[in-house]
Design brief:
Length: 296
């Protein structure tokens, strides 16, 4: 087990202005597509022509999600286009065209649903989301904050100490917003027929659903692990660990520092599994316990 000083070796990949106090340093993609169709082109003057934001292709009715935690400050029409604005403190993100399911004053977490994507946007060939990034009245390039797929924000060794996890059992099992399809405890295994401990909870979710980590920590395993299939385990600041199994793909490697909400993979059915779901484990002193018993 590497002692703490090993943290000092972590490469700081972000410019100083983006260090950890700025919680919006990296943005989650607001749609399932992680690709920009039309890039940012800043206007030459305040009201001049330009492309304020980036266009991300999507499907009509698809969920639009907050890129980072913040407060909704606007949900309504701007120039005839349904718009949602979220204030992240230093910067704001804007989303068009969106049928809002949030209202001004609502607090949102990274990945929370803001509404659904509307079918027409004048600047897209097909349905797309225009995502904007504002600091004061300046338009900035959102692409600078959107992570390339599979890449991670690294935490500065000079930054504040990692916070202990702040979830409890219900927050933990609501990770993907779906139902618990099989609880923790003794059961007859659906594949082998054996009676044995089911060492986590199964969360129902469609194949490919992004899997965020519950709390910041260090990735301790990222590997194909027998019955668990593609498996990622994260050790948190209080020593507890969470793990994520049967993934269709992994997007983190052992040693990576991750922040709450960082996507470490996608739901799948690898290993001993009868269909796509997330097998979520909570480990205390290395032993699995019922995630529903977790205290914040
Ligand atoms: Zn399971």
């Amino acid at each position: 087990m590497a002692p703490l000083p090993a943290l000092a070796a972590i490469v700081v990949a972000l410019p100083l202005t983006l260090l950890p106090q700025d919680r919006s340093a990296s943005w989650e993609w607001p749609l399932s597509t992680q690709r920009v169709e039309r890039a940012f082109a800043p206007p030459q003057s305040e009201y001049g022509p330009g492309h304020r934001g980036v266009d991300i292709p999507g499907r009509p009715g698809e969920d639009v999600r907050a890129v980072a935690a913040g407060t909704v400050t606007f949900a309504g029409q701007v120039g005839g286009i349904m718009t949602v604005t979220v204030d992240h403190g230093v910067e704001r993100s804007t989303y068009q065209p969106v049928a809002a399911s949030v209202a001004p004053g609502d607090a949102v977490r990274r990945g929370d649903r803001l509404g659904t994507l509307l079918p027409s946007h004048p600047s897209c060939t097909s349905t797309c989301l225009n995502l904007g990034r504002l600091r004061g009245s300046d338009y900035l390039d959102p692409a600078d904050r959107l992570r390339a797929e599979g890449r991670f924000r690294l935490i500065s060794p000079e930054g504040p100490p990692p916070e202990p996890p702040s979830w409890n059992g219900s927050g933990l099992v609501n990770l993907l917003g779906g139902p618990i399809t099989s609880p923790f405890g003794m059961r007859v295994h659906p594949v082998t027929g054996e009676r044995k401990l089911h060492d986590g909870v199964d969360l129902g979710a469609a194949c490919g659903t992004p899997v965020p980590v519950l709390a910041s920590g260090r990735v301790s395993r990222s590997e194909y692990r027998g019955a668990y299939g593609e498996h990622v385990e994260v050790v948190h600041a209080d020593g507890r660990a969470t793990s994520y199994s049967h993934l269709s793909r992994r997007q983190a490697k052992a040693g990576d520092q991750v922040a709450a909400g960082d996507v470490i993979g996608a739901v799948g059915s690898t290993g001993r599994s009868t269909g796509c779901h997330l097998h979520l484990m909570l480990l205390v002193d290395g032993a699995p316990v019922d995630p529903l018993s977790a205290q914040g």
